[in-house]
């Protein structure tokens, strides 16, 4: 039987426990998952592409049940659908946190279907305890020294503290 390959794309600036939850659940849907770290210069990311890839890779080593062996982390700076085709994906995974995400995901999914109709988008619901988490909120709270326990992995917390350390 053919291996089902999925791409979970995002800026991951930085990866949060909400993303990690989607990644764990996406492994039930696909045989092999490519985490596509978008360069996304337009978003003015806090961490460079290489740093984000490194941080996501670090997080993947904590996946249970051999999950890490079914995951690869890659940066991309092309159209998402070109990237998905280049890795042989048939599925794009996205996380939905709230109704407010739906409109954006709906537009994205239809444009992507126009670009590559043979690749389907599968949206997974983010668990309720992570539904309010976003990377920009995480960055803002970190920059002001707020408590982020339980919202991001420990190594991400350390990376944020280092980035915002006052001289
Ligand atoms: N848990 C926590 N946060 C989540 C989440 C989850 N499960 N799912 C999404 N988010 C948050 C992210 O942290 C991010 O928050 P922020 O905007 O406050 O930083 C937000 O939701 C959306 O981010 P993300 O899922 O990373 O998407 P994005 O909008 O940054 O990037 C791409 C989306 C990479 C898929 C899109 O930019 C893309 O496809 N780029 C390639 C170019 C392209 O093909 N363009 C045409 C598209 S039709």
Can you give a write-up of this model?
- This protein is an alpha/beta fold and 167 residues long.
- The chain has a single domain (5-163), classed as HUPs (Rossmann fold).
- Helices cover 39% and strands 19% of the residues.
- The protein contains 6 helices and 5 strands.
- It has helices at residues 17-26, 49-60, 80-86, 99-115, 135-143, 154-163, and strands at residues 5-10, 32-38, 71-76, 91-96, 120-125.
- The protein has a 5-stranded parallel sheet, with helices on both faces.
- Helix 4 (99-115) links the parallel strand 4 (91-96) and strand 5.
- The longest helix is centred in the middle third of the chain and has 17 residues, at 99-115.
- The protein is globular and about 55 Å long.
- It starts with a strand and ends with a helix.
- Coenzyme A binds next to strand 1, helix 1, helix 4 and helix 5.
Strand content: 15-25%
Number of helices: 6
The total count of strands amounts to 5
Q: What's the helical proportion of residues?
A: 25-40%
Q: What is the spatial order of strands in the main beta sheet?
A: 3-2-1-4-5
The Rg value, from CA coordinates, equals 16 Å
Biggest sheet layout: 5 strands, parallel
CATH class: Alpha Beta
Query: Which compounds are bound in this model?
Result: coenzyme A
Shape type: globular
Structural class: alpha/beta
Output mean pLDDT: 95
Number of domains: 1
Q: What is CATH's topology name? A: Rossmann fold
| Low-pLDDT stretches | none
Question: What's the architecture in CATH terms?
Answer: 3-Layer(aba) Sandwich
Q: Give me the strand/helix succession.
A: EHEHEHEHEHH
| CATH homologous superfamily label | HUPs
């Amino acid at each position: 039987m053919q291996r089902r390959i999925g791409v979970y794309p995002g800026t991951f600036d930085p990866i949060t426990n909400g993303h990690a939850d989607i990644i764990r659940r996406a492994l039930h849907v696909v045989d092999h998952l490519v985490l596509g770290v978008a360069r996304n210069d337009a978003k003015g990311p806090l961490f460079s592409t290489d740093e984000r890839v490194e941080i996501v890779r670090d997080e993947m080593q904590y996946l249970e049940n051999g999950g890490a062996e079914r995951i690869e982390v890659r940066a991309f700076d092309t159209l998402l659908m070109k990237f998905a085709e280049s890795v042989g994906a048939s599925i794009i995974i996205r996380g939905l946190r709230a109704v407010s995400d739906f409109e954006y995901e709906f537009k994205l999914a239809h444009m992507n279907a126009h670009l590559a109709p043979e690749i389907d988008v599968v949206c997974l619901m983010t668990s309720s305890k992570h539904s309010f988490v976003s990377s920009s909120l995480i960055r803002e709270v970190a920059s002001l020294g707020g408590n982020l326990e339980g919202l991001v992995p420990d190594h991400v917390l350390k990376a944020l503290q280092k980035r915002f350390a006052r001289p």
